[in-house]
Amino acid sequence: MTLRSNLPTLPFAPLLLIAPFFLWGTAMVAMKGVMLHTTPWFLAGVRLVPAGLLVLLAAKWMGRSQPSSWRAWAWIGAFAVVDGTLFQGFLAQGLARTGAGLGSVMIDSQPLAVALLALVLFGERIGLWGWLGLALGVAGISLLGLPDPWIVALFHGKLAGVLPAGENLVQQLFESGEWLMLLAALSMAAGTVMIPMVSRHVDPVVATGWHMVIGGLPLFGLSAIAEEQQWQALTGFDWLALTYATVFGSAIAYGLFFYFASQGNLTSLSALTFLTPVFALLFGNLFLAEVLSPIQWGGVGLTLVSIYLINQRDVLEGMLRRSQAKSAVSFLEESAAQPVPVAMAETEPEIASSEIAS
Questions:
Q1: Cα separation of 266 and 192, whole Å?
Q2: CB atoms inside a 10 Å sphere around CB 329
Q3: DSSP secondary structure string, 115-164?
Q4: CB under 8 Å to 130, separation ≥6 — which residues?
Q5: Within 13 Å of residue 141, how many CA atoms lie on the same side as its CB?
Q6: Which pLDDT does position 40 carry in this prediction?
Q7: Hey, which bits of the chain come out as E strands?
């Protein structure tokens, strides 16, 4: 099943496919700009709950049916915890510790996890190019997520001298914004593969709205318990940025993404998220002056190549098969065109006749 074959025949369908990833990338930049004046749990809740209410209002206006069974609410609840509370919570906490562009690259490594989960749960084939993409993705994420001194020491064979021991190692990793973003990516990947199962019991747009509302409430609870001065320092521009991240980066982007995900191949759709870090890196550099180290740029390159390979694995394998078939046909044609040597047994009588005649 391909994604495009299930999309409405709209003149702007390609732009609609790209829109969620543009909105997510630019929303990351908007959220990072606000982060200095607010707190992570509050920011995560603001991004979810109002957006979910907007999606539910839109669903009601479109006449979408509401959940009508306990199974539907159970799936929505599980979806809310995984793709709402965990994903947005890890994202906001990670964004407080890293840049918008780099954080976006880490989050959008989730197609790697989606490919593996879709293989196990739905039998979606990965193939040679997909596995190569996964290997490059692991290498890219390692370059992004591990501290630069560790990478340099590894290439010089002196890694043991720079690694902290035991608990300090784990603590240092999980205080890193990149690793929190990786946890966000894994949460989103799990949420993505849940979509077909959720869609069996409830309309996908309605499920999107409810999962955002239900998933955002625990984040507000955590903010009330653990945070202070959540909104007092916000400026008018900050509220404008929050509005953009909520309406466009959540309500519209999530609505489009989960609708498309319910219609086609999960791995191919998720792999389009390679566009999100491109937008985030571009706008993060323009508006926030974010700069990556050479090692991190290498990780970005490997990650984007890996996601491209996963997305285009069917096309690449088809090209390889056609090339092999063409080579085989060419070989047979060349073989057929070669002159056939005459058997010695057939030439001996002629030689003998010639000798007698002479």
A1: 7
A2: 10
A3: HHHHHHHH----HHHHHHHHHHHHHHHHHHHS-HHHHHHHHTT-GGGTPP
A4: 115, 267, 309, 310, 313
A5: 26
A6: 94
A7: none
Cβ 41 vs Cβ 92: under 8 Å: yes
Angle at 124 between CA 118 and CA 128, to 5 degrees: 110
253 Cβ contact partners less than 8 Å away, ≥ 6 residues apart = 19, 20, 21, 23, 24, 27
pLDDT tens figures, 184-215: 888 988 888 888 889 899 998 899 899 999 99
**Who contacts 255 (Cβ-Cβ below 8 Å, separation ≥6)?**
55, 58, 205, 208
In this prediction, residues 269-285 reach a mean pLDDT of: 73
- pLDDT value for 5: 43
CB-based contact 118:223 (threshold 8 Å): no
Widest Cα–Cα separation across the chain: 119
Scanning the structure block, which residue is given the tokens 């049916």? 65
Nearest to 208 by CA among 186, 228, 191: 191
